[in-house]
Amino acid sequence: MLSYLALFYAALGVNSNRIRYAFYSSCLSQSNQCIILLFMTHSNTNASSFLVDHYDLFDNLQIGNGVLDLACGKGRNGLFLVSHNVPVLFADNNEAHLQSIVPALESAGPSSKKSACWLIDFEAQVSEGRNPLIGKSFDAVIVFNYLHRPLFPFIREAIRPGGLIVYETFNVDQKRFGRPSNPDFLLQHDELCQVFAGWEFIESFEGEVSNPDRAITRLIARKQTKK
Question: Is the pTM above the cut of 0.85?
Fold first, then answer.
């Protein structure tokens, strides 16, 4: 269907990349049943070392529902997974960032998986009393350098049994290094472990790292399977 759309808009002199992107965003925000096919071959050397070092967990994960890259920004971490044939849903409220991801996804080879971009304001939906992840199920959710505490229960629910949470963001000790310094954006000590209590903890870290110097919390945990 998308190839016919591209030909149609090319005949009209319209930028087909922009049209396809608008279609992706609109479709995903209106229906959980919408499926978007893209071919991808992008490797990203700027992915978090935490994700890269633990990629084997995804290699051994049965992928059926794909991975949510929540608040993905320009998609550096999700694109790393895509380059290893893991399908990713890139979700962010910044349209320009998502537009920058689409060309990377479209320039791929035949062995690529399916993926998509999703334009969504998680915080606005939560403030309106809605669950932005309702009806969705993922094999894993990855979150980097982002914190909005009201989303925690929705993230827990959206990960299928046996699925993974991979989380890395700043904690309260970051104040000594500079921004961010707003406590709304900084995890308390042990907070992430409490949020995912009852899950199987695979890797956890709380402390200072370099390049650049910062104070962070990291967690990889597996949701318990149903008995």
Answer: no
Would you say 163 and 222 are in contact if contact means Cβ atoms under 8 Å apart?
yes
Residue 161 DSSP one-character state: E
The ranges of the chain with pLDDT < 70 are: 1-45, 108-113, 227
CATH number at residue 94: 3.40.50.150
pLDDT at 108: 53
- Check if the beta carbon of residue 87 is closer than 8 Å to that of residue 66: yes
Residue 100 forms beta bridges with which residues? none
pLDDT in tens, 195-219: 999 999 999 998 888 888 898 999 9
Residue 123, domain extent: 34-222
Q: Are 158 and 121 spatial neighbours (Cβ–Cβ below 8 Å)?
A: no
Q: Please report the beta strands in 85-199, taking only residues with DSSP state E, as ranges in sequence order.
A: 88-92, 116-119, 138-144, 159-170
Q: How many CA atoms within 13 Å lie on the side-chain side of 148?
A: 14
Q: How far apart are the first and last CA of the chain?
A: 42
Query: Quick check: 81 and 67 in contact, CB under 8 A?
Result: yes
Rounded CA-CA distance 150/158 in Å is: 14
| Number of domains present in the structure of the chain | 1
